[in-house]
Amino acid sequence: MRERVGLSKLKQIRRAINEKDLDSLRTLALSKDGFLKDSFRTEAWMLLLHCESGIFQHLKYVDLDEATERQIQLDVDRSFVHYQHISSKNISRFRSALKRLTSHVFRCLPWLHYYQGFHDICSVLLMVLGEYRAKRAALVLSAVWLREFMEPTMESTMSQVSMILLVLKQMDPELHSFFQSIPDFQPIFSVSWLITWLSHDLDKFQGARLFDALIATNPLFIIYLACALLKTQRSLILECDADMADVHGILCHVKFQELDFENLIQETVDFYDRYPNILQKNILPYSASVYFKESYLKNDLNFKNIEQTVRKKLSKPTSSLRHFIAGISIIGIIGVYFLYSYKVNLDFLVVSIFKNRMFLQ
Question: pTM for this one?
Protein backbone atom coordinates (compact mmCIF):
# COMPACT_ATOMS: atom_id res chain seq x y z
CA MET A 1 0.00 0.00 0.00
CA ARG A 2 2.82 2.41 0.91
CA GLU A 3 4.58 1.71 -2.38
CA ARG A 4 1.43 2.45 -4.38
CA VAL A 5 0.83 5.68 -2.46
CA GLY A 6 4.48 6.71 -2.96
CA LEU A 7 4.38 5.94 -6.67
CA SER A 8 1.14 7.85 -7.03
CA LYS A 9 2.66 10.92 -5.41
CA LEU A 10 5.79 10.68 -7.55
CA LYS A 11 3.58 10.80 -10.62
CA GLN A 12 1.62 13.75 -9.21
CA ILE A 13 4.80 15.72 -8.54
CA ARG A 14 6.23 14.96 -11.97
CA ARG A 15 2.97 15.96 -13.66
CA ALA A 16 2.74 19.21 -11.67
CA ILE A 17 6.33 20.11 -12.57
CA ASN A 18 5.88 19.31 -16.25
CA GLU A 19 2.66 21.32 -16.43
CA LYS A 20 4.02 24.09 -14.16
CA ASP A 21 0.92 23.63 -12.02
CA LEU A 22 1.80 25.81 -9.04
CA ASP A 23 -1.41 25.15 -7.13
CA SER A 24 -0.76 21.41 -7.23
CA LEU A 25 2.86 21.92 -6.23
CA ARG A 26 1.78 23.96 -3.20
CA THR A 27 -0.62 21.22 -2.14
CA LEU A 28 2.01 18.51 -2.62
CA ALA A 29 4.60 20.52 -0.67
CA LEU A 30 2.31 20.57 2.37
CA SER A 31 1.37 16.89 2.15
CA LYS A 32 3.37 14.11 3.82
CA ASP A 33 7.07 14.09 2.92
CA GLY A 34 6.76 17.11 0.64
CA PHE A 35 8.54 16.73 -2.68
CA LEU A 36 10.11 13.40 -1.61
CA LYS A 37 13.57 13.85 -3.18
CA ASP A 38 15.98 16.59 -4.18
CA SER A 39 15.64 16.07 -7.93
CA PHE A 40 11.98 17.06 -7.60
CA ARG A 41 12.76 19.80 -5.10
CA THR A 42 15.20 21.43 -7.50
CA GLU A 43 12.54 21.86 -10.16
CA ALA A 44 9.63 22.55 -7.80
CA TRP A 45 11.43 25.21 -5.74
CA MET A 46 12.60 27.06 -8.85
CA LEU A 47 9.03 27.12 -10.14
CA LEU A 48 7.48 28.17 -6.83
CA LEU A 49 10.07 30.93 -6.40
CA HIS A 50 9.49 32.12 -9.99
CA CYS A 51 13.23 32.08 -10.55
CA GLU A 52 12.78 32.45 -14.29
CA SER A 53 10.88 35.74 -13.92
CA GLY A 54 13.94 37.74 -14.96
CA ILE A 55 13.65 40.40 -12.25
CA PHE A 56 17.16 39.79 -10.95
CA GLN A 57 18.93 39.07 -14.24
CA HIS A 58 20.40 42.53 -14.82
CA LEU A 59 21.64 43.47 -11.38
CA LYS A 60 25.10 44.98 -11.08
CA TYR A 61 27.58 43.68 -8.54
CA VAL A 62 28.78 46.02 -5.80
CA ASP A 63 31.65 45.44 -3.42
CA LEU A 64 30.92 44.18 0.08
CA ASP A 65 32.12 46.31 2.93
CA GLU A 66 34.92 44.70 4.94
CA ALA A 67 32.83 44.13 8.06
CA THR A 68 30.09 42.25 6.18
CA GLU A 69 32.62 40.17 4.29
CA ARG A 70 34.44 39.31 7.51
CA GLN A 71 31.25 38.25 9.29
CA ILE A 72 30.15 36.08 6.37
CA GLN A 73 33.53 34.35 6.46
CA LEU A 74 33.25 33.74 10.21
CA ASP A 75 29.78 32.23 9.82
CA VAL A 76 30.77 30.11 6.84
CA ASP A 77 33.76 28.74 8.76
CA ARG A 78 31.39 27.17 11.30
CA SER A 79 28.76 26.00 8.81
CA PHE A 80 27.50 22.48 7.96
CA VAL A 81 28.02 21.20 11.52
CA HIS A 82 24.78 19.15 11.32
CA TYR A 83 25.51 17.78 7.84
CA GLN A 84 27.10 14.49 8.77
CA HIS A 85 26.94 13.17 5.20
CA ILE A 86 29.62 15.69 4.12
CA SER A 87 33.08 14.22 4.46
CA SER A 88 35.84 16.24 6.08
CA LYS A 89 37.76 16.40 2.80
CA ASN A 90 34.76 17.93 0.99
CA ILE A 91 33.59 20.40 3.62
CA SER A 92 36.04 23.12 2.54
CA ARG A 93 34.64 22.94 -0.98
CA PHE A 94 31.07 23.36 0.27
CA ARG A 95 32.09 26.24 2.52
CA SER A 96 33.75 28.05 -0.37
CA ALA A 97 30.57 27.67 -2.42
CA LEU A 98 28.50 28.86 0.55
CA LYS A 99 30.62 31.99 0.88
CA ARG A 100 30.16 32.79 -2.81
CA LEU A 101 26.41 32.19 -2.56
CA THR A 102 25.88 34.28 0.57
CA SER A 103 28.05 37.14 -0.70
CA HIS A 104 26.23 37.08 -4.04
CA VAL A 105 22.96 38.21 -2.43
CA PHE A 106 24.42 41.34 -0.84
CA ARG A 107 26.47 42.23 -3.89
CA CYS A 108 23.30 42.13 -5.99
CA LEU A 109 20.90 43.61 -3.42
CA PRO A 110 23.03 46.10 -1.47
CA TRP A 111 20.12 47.66 0.40
CA LEU A 112 19.63 44.42 2.34
CA HIS A 113 21.56 43.82 5.55
CA TYR A 114 23.32 40.58 6.41
CA TYR A 115 22.41 38.87 9.66
CA GLN A 116 23.93 35.84 11.36
CA GLY A 117 21.76 32.88 10.42
CA PHE A 118 21.15 33.83 6.82
CA HIS A 119 24.04 31.57 5.84
CA ASP A 120 22.13 28.63 7.37
CA ILE A 121 19.26 29.21 4.94
CA CYS A 122 21.76 29.45 2.11
CA SER A 123 23.27 26.14 3.23
CA VAL A 124 19.99 24.32 2.60
CA LEU A 125 19.57 26.00 -0.78
CA LEU A 126 23.12 25.07 -1.76
CA MET A 127 22.78 21.42 -0.78
CA VAL A 128 19.49 20.96 -2.63
CA LEU A 129 19.85 23.22 -5.67
CA GLY A 130 23.55 23.48 -6.31
CA GLU A 131 25.37 26.80 -6.42
CA TYR A 132 24.05 28.17 -9.73
CA ARG A 133 20.34 27.66 -8.98
CA ALA A 134 20.80 28.51 -5.31
CA LYS A 135 22.04 32.00 -6.25
CA ARG A 136 18.81 32.73 -8.10
CA ALA A 137 16.64 31.22 -5.37
CA ALA A 138 18.47 33.12 -2.61
CA LEU A 139 17.83 36.45 -4.36
CA VAL A 140 14.08 35.83 -4.48
CA LEU A 141 13.88 34.57 -0.90
CA SER A 142 15.89 37.56 0.35
CA ALA A 143 13.87 40.15 -1.55
CA VAL A 144 10.51 38.68 -0.50
CA TRP A 145 10.32 35.99 2.19
CA LEU A 146 13.23 37.21 4.32
CA ARG A 147 13.11 40.90 3.52
CA GLU A 148 11.78 41.98 6.91
CA PHE A 149 14.74 40.39 8.67
CA MET A 150 17.15 42.36 6.49
CA GLU A 151 15.96 45.87 7.34
CA PRO A 152 18.41 48.34 8.92
CA THR A 153 16.54 48.20 12.24
CA MET A 154 14.79 45.48 14.23
CA GLU A 155 11.30 46.99 13.96
CA SER A 156 9.96 44.66 11.28
CA THR A 157 11.63 41.60 12.81
CA MET A 158 10.14 42.28 16.24
CA SER A 159 6.77 42.88 14.60
CA GLN A 160 6.97 39.33 13.27
CA VAL A 161 7.98 38.04 16.69
CA SER A 162 5.04 39.76 18.39
CA MET A 163 2.65 38.07 15.95
CA ILE A 164 3.46 34.73 17.58
CA LEU A 165 1.46 35.71 20.66
CA LEU A 166 -1.54 36.72 18.52
CA VAL A 167 -1.62 33.32 16.87
CA LEU A 168 -0.86 31.42 20.07
CA LYS A 169 -3.80 33.09 21.82
CA GLN A 170 -6.11 31.19 19.47
CA MET A 171 -4.03 28.05 19.06
CA ASP A 172 -3.31 27.42 22.76
CA PRO A 173 -5.05 29.85 25.16
CA GLU A 174 -3.56 28.23 28.27
CA LEU A 175 0.00 28.53 27.04
CA HIS A 176 -0.68 32.11 25.91
CA SER A 177 -2.01 32.99 29.37
CA PHE A 178 1.11 31.55 30.97
CA PHE A 179 3.35 33.70 28.79
CA GLN A 180 1.23 36.76 29.53
CA SER A 181 1.73 36.17 33.26
CA ILE A 182 5.46 36.85 32.79
CA PRO A 183 6.18 40.59 33.17
CA ASP A 184 7.07 42.30 29.88
CA PHE A 185 7.15 38.98 28.09
CA GLN A 186 8.18 38.85 24.44
CA PRO A 187 8.99 35.58 22.62
CA ILE A 188 12.54 36.71 21.90
CA PHE A 189 13.69 33.09 21.90
CA SER A 190 11.84 32.66 18.61
CA VAL A 191 13.91 35.24 16.70
CA SER A 192 16.44 32.63 15.61
CA TRP A 193 13.61 30.27 14.57
CA LEU A 194 12.15 32.90 12.25
CA ILE A 195 15.30 34.34 10.73
CA THR A 196 16.92 30.94 10.02
CA TRP A 197 13.73 28.98 9.22
CA LEU A 198 15.04 26.59 11.91
CA SER A 199 17.81 25.53 9.52
CA HIS A 200 20.58 26.18 12.03
CA ASP A 201 19.44 23.22 14.12
CA LEU A 202 18.44 20.74 11.39
CA ASP A 203 20.33 18.37 9.16
CA LYS A 204 20.09 18.70 5.40
CA PHE A 205 17.21 16.26 4.99
CA GLN A 206 15.03 17.84 7.69
CA GLY A 207 15.83 21.33 6.44
CA ALA A 208 14.92 20.43 2.87
CA ARG A 209 11.58 18.95 3.95
CA LEU A 210 10.73 22.03 6.01
CA PHE A 211 11.72 24.32 3.14
CA ASP A 212 9.21 22.51 0.90
CA ALA A 213 6.46 23.95 3.08
CA LEU A 214 8.01 27.36 3.67
CA ILE A 215 8.74 28.01 0.00
CA ALA A 216 5.25 26.85 -1.00
CA THR A 217 3.61 29.36 1.35
CA ASN A 218 4.05 33.04 2.14
CA PRO A 219 6.19 34.62 4.91
CA LEU A 220 3.49 34.27 7.58
CA PHE A 221 3.66 30.47 7.55
CA ILE A 222 6.76 30.48 9.77
CA ILE A 223 4.79 32.41 12.44
CA TYR A 224 2.15 29.70 12.64
CA LEU A 225 4.80 27.00 12.54
CA ALA A 226 6.63 28.61 15.48
CA CYS A 227 3.41 28.40 17.50
CA ALA A 228 2.97 24.74 16.61
CA LEU A 229 6.56 24.19 17.73
CA LEU A 230 5.86 25.92 21.04
CA LYS A 231 2.99 23.54 21.64
CA THR A 232 5.38 20.59 21.45
CA GLN A 233 7.14 22.03 24.52
CA ARG A 234 4.02 23.10 26.41
CA SER A 235 4.27 20.56 29.24
CA LEU A 236 7.85 21.60 30.05
CA ILE A 237 6.94 25.29 29.82
CA LEU A 238 3.85 25.04 32.02
CA GLU A 239 5.79 23.14 34.68
CA CYS A 240 8.41 25.89 35.08
CA ASP A 241 8.13 29.15 36.99
CA ALA A 242 6.61 32.15 35.23
CA ASP A 243 10.05 33.60 34.64
CA MET A 244 11.58 34.68 31.34
CA ALA A 245 14.97 33.17 32.17
CA ASP A 246 13.43 29.74 32.88
CA VAL A 247 11.31 29.77 29.73
CA HIS A 248 14.26 30.95 27.67
CA GLY A 249 16.39 28.12 29.08
CA ILE A 250 13.86 25.49 28.02
CA LEU A 251 13.34 26.84 24.54
CA CYS A 252 17.06 27.27 23.88
CA HIS A 253 17.51 23.52 24.30
CA VAL A 254 14.74 22.18 22.09
CA LYS A 255 15.89 18.98 20.37
CA PHE A 256 14.77 20.05 16.90
CA GLN A 257 16.13 16.97 15.16
CA GLU A 258 13.83 14.79 17.25
CA LEU A 259 10.65 16.70 16.34
CA ASP A 260 8.06 15.27 13.98
CA PHE A 261 7.95 17.99 11.32
CA GLU A 262 5.26 16.21 9.34
CA ASN A 263 2.89 16.63 12.29
CA LEU A 264 4.06 20.20 12.84
CA ILE A 265 3.38 21.15 9.24
CA GLN A 266 -0.02 19.49 9.23
CA GLU A 267 -1.02 21.11 12.52
CA THR A 268 0.03 24.49 11.14
CA VAL A 269 -2.06 24.03 8.00
CA ASP A 270 -5.06 22.71 9.95
CA PHE A 271 -4.96 25.63 12.35
CA TYR A 272 -4.83 28.18 9.57
CA ASP A 273 -7.88 26.55 7.98
CA ARG A 274 -9.76 27.32 11.21
CA TYR A 275 -8.36 30.81 11.81
CA PRO A 276 -7.21 32.27 8.48
CA ASN A 277 -7.36 35.99 9.31
CA ILE A 278 -5.70 36.37 12.71
CA LEU A 279 -2.80 38.48 11.44
CA GLN A 280 -4.45 40.51 8.70
CA LYS A 281 -4.73 43.69 10.79
CA ASN A 282 -1.18 43.37 12.14
CA ILE A 283 0.79 43.24 8.89
CA LEU A 284 2.97 46.32 8.54
CA PRO A 285 2.56 48.39 5.35
CA TYR A 286 6.08 47.42 4.24
CA SER A 287 5.59 43.75 5.08
CA ALA A 288 6.75 41.27 2.46
CA SER A 289 3.28 39.74 2.71
CA VAL A 290 1.91 42.56 0.55
CA TYR A 291 3.59 40.85 -2.38
CA PHE A 292 1.14 37.96 -2.14
CA LYS A 293 -2.23 38.15 -3.82
CA GLU A 294 -4.09 35.56 -1.79
CA SER A 295 -3.93 33.64 1.48
CA TYR A 296 -0.60 32.54 2.88
CA LEU A 297 -1.29 28.99 1.74
CA LYS A 298 -0.51 30.28 -1.76
CA ASN A 299 2.74 31.99 -2.60
CA ASP A 300 0.99 33.75 -5.48
CA LEU A 301 3.56 36.48 -5.97
CA ASN A 302 2.72 39.86 -7.45
CA PHE A 303 5.93 40.34 -9.41
CA LYS A 304 4.99 43.78 -10.68
CA ASN A 305 5.19 45.08 -7.10
CA ILE A 306 8.47 43.26 -6.49
CA GLU A 307 10.05 44.66 -9.64
CA GLN A 308 8.99 48.19 -8.68
CA THR A 309 10.60 47.73 -5.25
CA VAL A 310 13.85 46.42 -6.72
CA ARG A 311 14.12 49.33 -9.16
CA LYS A 312 13.33 51.86 -6.45
CA LYS A 313 15.96 50.41 -4.12
CA LEU A 314 18.61 50.34 -6.82
CA SER A 315 18.02 54.03 -7.56
CA LYS A 316 18.77 55.05 -3.96
CA PRO A 317 22.29 55.48 -2.58
CA THR A 318 23.24 53.66 0.59
CA SER A 319 22.50 55.80 3.63
CA SER A 320 25.21 56.62 6.13
CA LEU A 321 22.54 56.48 8.81
CA ARG A 322 23.31 52.77 9.15
CA HIS A 323 26.68 53.53 10.69
CA PHE A 324 25.09 55.73 13.33
CA ILE A 325 22.50 53.04 14.14
CA ALA A 326 25.25 50.43 14.31
CA GLY A 327 27.08 52.45 16.95
CA ILE A 328 23.94 52.85 19.03
CA SER A 329 23.24 49.12 18.76
CA ILE A 330 26.70 48.19 20.02
CA ILE A 331 26.16 50.41 23.07
CA GLY A 332 22.77 48.78 23.56
CA ILE A 333 24.26 45.30 23.47
CA ILE A 334 26.80 46.16 26.14
CA GLY A 335 24.09 47.72 28.32
CA VAL A 336 21.75 44.75 28.05
CA TYR A 337 24.59 42.40 28.87
CA PHE A 338 25.41 44.10 32.17
CA LEU A 339 21.73 44.38 33.12
CA TYR A 340 20.73 40.77 32.51
CA SER A 341 23.81 38.59 32.30
CA TYR A 342 23.18 37.21 35.78
CA LYS A 343 19.82 35.76 34.70
CA VAL A 344 19.86 34.81 31.03
CA ASN A 345 22.20 33.19 28.55
CA LEU A 346 22.92 36.47 26.81
CA ASP A 347 25.33 34.95 24.33
CA PHE A 348 22.23 33.73 22.48
CA LEU A 349 19.78 36.39 23.56
CA VAL A 350 21.85 39.37 22.53
CA VAL A 351 22.46 37.86 19.12
CA SER A 352 18.73 37.18 18.82
CA ILE A 353 17.69 40.71 19.75
CA PHE A 354 20.26 42.67 17.85
CA LYS A 355 21.61 40.08 15.43
CA ASN A 356 24.86 41.92 16.23
CA ARG A 357 26.15 44.97 14.51
CA MET A 358 26.53 43.11 11.23
CA PHE A 359 22.76 43.37 10.78
CA LEU A 360 23.22 47.09 10.37
CA GLN A 361 26.39 47.38 8.34
Answer: 0.81
